């Protein structure tokens, strides 16, 4: 195969660009460098194709781009010597070169800002209505599964309990232990100033049992299991598996959402209990090392001065956290539209919204129990 060649001749008022050989895509790399560095002289230019033996779409596109570049510099360009077939191909390629639309600057000012704010407000309201409707639909399917247990997919529930509960025990226990260590260390630093080191037991026990144990456990579950729910169901949505379920007469809420929600309802209180135990263990160990509070004294003061209601308050929050995480994660998955990028965006939104919901629910419970004097 004859490699293509490019020669350039200059006169006082014009430039002649002569192509020869076979201008085929697989061999154009030999003239890419001369093409890139080609500078025309004068007010006109001719592109001579009389010595071109073969021309394909890649070669025609290269010639069309050269002509377009020279014309953009104010040079009048004429293509001469092309065979009829080559001329027709070059004309077709030139007509179909995509034109890049110019990017308009974003609108500025008060009115565009107000319009954007209004759109976001309406979107947030629509999302709120959608998630409330999804929550009601999920509750209906859960109650129906409880009323008709044979409809519940027990194998799926057990599998989700293993994924969200059993496999999360190590990270939850480690988190609880470290939180207990940090509380004991920081509490000891402050209480030593007043000679009240022994009260570190109440500081640790009330903080962990009432607030931090279940709250941080829920945040970990939201980041770990909530994101997994959104990613797995969202991927099924992209691959049209959920549409296939509906075609087969299966309810996606009953098949996919209910087992995950029930699994979280069961395992989150258990994980919270494990986090509480690990936190008390870490606090007891650090109190012993840093303050000299023996494990026996720690346990004694824990029994005498820590009401069991502190533990109850923490566990009461767990089912509400579980429902919020499960519903938000699955609702976000159902909003996935058509691409893997959408799955990523919805997974991120799921984690953020779940953590926000957990903290908001915890704040509401704190206000409620404070008003009730519990």
CA(first)-CA(last) distance: 90 Å
Spans of 5+ residues with little confidence (pLDDT < 50)?
A: none
The major sheet is characterized as:
4 strands, mixed
By DSSP (H or I, 4+ residues per run), the number of helices equals 12
According to DSSP, the number of beta strands is 4
Question: How many domains would you count in the coordinates?
Answer: 2
> How would you sum up the global shape?
elongated
Question: Can you lay out the helices and strands and say which pair or pack?
Answer:
Layout: E1 5-10, E2 14-23, H1 32-36, E3 44-55, H2 57-72, E4 76-80, H3 84-95, H4 110-147, H5 154-164, H6 169-191, H7 200-238, H8 241-247, H9 252-291, H10 295-305, H11 308-334, H12 340-372
Overall description:
This protein has 374 residues and is α/β, with parallel strands linked by helices. The chain has two domains: 5-95, Transcription Regulator spoIIAA (2-Layer Sandwich), CATH 3.30.750; 135-372, no CATH class. 70% of the residues lie in helices and 9% in strands. The protein has twelve helices and four strands. A four-stranded mixed β-sheet has the order 1-2-3-4, covered by helices on one side. Strand 2, helix 1 (32-36) and strand 3 form a beta-alpha-beta unit. The longest helix has 40 residues, at 252-291. It starts with a strand and ends with a helix. The mean pLDDT is 85.
């Amino acid at each position: 195969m004859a490699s293509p060649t490019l020669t350039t001749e200059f006169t006082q008022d014009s430039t002649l660009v002569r192509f020869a050989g076979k201008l085929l895509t697989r061999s154009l790399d030999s003239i890419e460098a001369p093409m890139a560095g080609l500078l025309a002289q004068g007010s006109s230019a001719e592109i001579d194709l009389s010595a071109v033996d073969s021309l394909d779409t890649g070669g025609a596109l290269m010639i069309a781009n050269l002509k377009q570049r020279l014309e953009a510099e104010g040079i009048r360009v004429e293509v001469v010597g092309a065979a009829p077939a080559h001329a027709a191909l070059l004309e077709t390629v030139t007509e179909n070169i995509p034109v890049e639309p110019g990017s308009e600057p974003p609108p500025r000012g008060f009115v565009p800002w107000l319009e954007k704010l209004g759109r976001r407000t309406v979107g947030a309201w629509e999302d709120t209505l959608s998630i409330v409707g999804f929550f009601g639909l999920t509750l209906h399917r859960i109650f129906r599964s409880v009323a008709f247990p044979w409809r519940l997919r027990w194998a799926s529930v057990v599998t989700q309990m293993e994924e969200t509960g059993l496999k999360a025990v190590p990270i939850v226990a480690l988190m609880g232990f470290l939180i207990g260590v940090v509380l004991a260390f920081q509490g000891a630093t402050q209480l030593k100033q007043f000679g009240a080191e022994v009260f570190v037991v109440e500081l640790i026990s009330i903080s962990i049992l009432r607030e931090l144990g279940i709250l941080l456990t829920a945040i970990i579950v939201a980041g770990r299991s909530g994101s997994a729910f959104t990613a797995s169901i969202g991927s099924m949505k992209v691959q049209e598996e959920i549409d296939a379920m509906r075609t087969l007469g299966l309810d996606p809420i009953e098949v996919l959402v209910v087992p995950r929600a029930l699994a979280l309802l069961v395992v989150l209180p258990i994980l919270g209990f494990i986090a509480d135990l690990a936190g008390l263990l870490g606090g007891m160990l650090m109190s012993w090392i840093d303050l000299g509070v023996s494990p026996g004294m720690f346990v004694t003061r824990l029994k005498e001065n820590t009401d069991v209601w502190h533990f109850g308050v923490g566990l009461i929050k767990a089912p509400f956290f579980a429902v919020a995480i499960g519903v938000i994660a699955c609702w976000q998955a159902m909003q996935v539209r058509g691409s893997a990028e959408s799955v990523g965006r919805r997974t991120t939104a799921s984690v953020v919204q779940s953590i926000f919901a957990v903290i908001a629910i915890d704040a509401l419970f704190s206000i409620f129990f404070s008003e009730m004097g519990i």
